[in-house]
Amino acid sequence: LYALPYSTYRRHKIRRYGFHGTSYSYILKRYQELTGDSDKESNLIIFHLGNGCSAVAIKEGKSIDTSMGMTPTEGLVMGSRSGDVDPSVIEMIGTKEGLNFSEMQAMLNRSSGLVGISGITSDMRDLLAEVEEHQDRRATLAIDIFCYRARKYLGSYLAAIGPIKAVIFCGGIGENAPQIRQGIIEGLEHLGIQLDTSKNNKLTEDGIISRDQSPVQVRVIPTNEEIMIARETLSLVVEKEKTPK
Q1: Which of 2, 69, 136, 143 lies 20 to 30 Å from 18 when distance is taken between CA atoms?
Q2: Is residue 10 domain-resident?
Q3: Contact 80, 113 (CB under 8 A)
Q4: Is residue 120, in this structure, part of any structural domain at all?
Q5: CA of 95: how far to CAs of 73, 85, 89, 191, 213, in Å?
Q6: Which of 148, 160, 151 is closest to 190 using CA atoms?
Q7: Given CA atoms 73, 76, 81, 86 in this order, what sign does their dihedral have?
């Protein structure tokens, strides 16, 4: 729940719901297929990083926290969404800029995040290219804030769920941007997370990118939300057919 008057939850169901559940469900099942771990053994932190980004803490096979909240605006920095922001800032900007609530919502969701900071694009691939080719300072700043926010969530989830088996990356950025994975993971040896930069840079599909001796594995597992939707649909159809008419 949010630390708001409890009556807001009772009357309007204002609470944190989270998103990317279909993706996380697939990643958990795929991780268990690859490792043989049971739900009891599955203590994980997963990052779904694409144009929309979120993180989830999984303890004994169940999600106990997620970075997105009542809406997808909360949490990590995203392509065009702000992620976490002081609520009072919204009122302040609205007053100073003469924006109404709908216009503020549009700003938070469509012109903030990576594109808001960089002033260039919401596409991480283009930002990385700008940094490599032109050393663009605002593109660098956008990427740094993106990685820093993710590291903060990683640390907070470690504190919340205790020892974990793996950190897993998925989504377009998580699967294809080794620079971003390195920016989030590098320097966390004191938390038992040891990145192998060579493995990370050479990975082309899925696999382990942590050092062999790392207490916590770091993995890349491509997500497949479509197959999870198909499985859930099939399950519902089968269940309906079993129901007596």
Answers
A1: 143
A2: no
A3: yes
A4: yes
A5: 21, 16, 10, 43, 54
A6: 151
A7: positive
Residue 213 structural domain: 20-242
Please give the helix or strand (H or E) that residue 181 lies within, else none. helix 178-185
Higher per-residue pLDDT: 235 or 151: 151
3-class secondary structure per residue, 92-144? HHHHHHCCCHHHHHHHHHHCCHHHHHHCCCCCHHHHHHHHHHHCCHHHHHHHH
User: Whole-angstrom Cα distance, residue 100 to residue 98?
Assistant: 7
The full length of the chain comes to 245
> Alpha carbon 177 to chain centroid distance?
14
Q: Which amino acid is at 189?
A: E
pLDDT tens, residue by residue, 8-36: 999 999 999 999 999 999 999 999 999 99
Kindly report the number of other CB atoms within 10 A of residue 211's CB atom. Answer: 17
For residue 32, what is the enclosing H or E element? helix 21-35
| Strands ordered across the beta sheet of 166-170 | 62-66, 53-59, 44-49, 166-170, 217-220, 207-208
51 domain-assigned: yes
pLDDT digits (tens, 9 = 90+) for 189-201: 999 999 999 999 9
CATH at residue 214: 3.30.420.40
Q: How many domains does the chain have?
A: 1
Confirm whether 14 is domain-assigned: no
Q: Is the pTM of this model over 0.85?
A: yes
8-state DSSP, 40: T
According to DSSP, the β-strands at 166-170 and 44-49 are parallel
Handedness of CA 18, 187, 173, 209 (dihedral sign): negative
Q: What residue type is 62 in one-letter code?
A: K
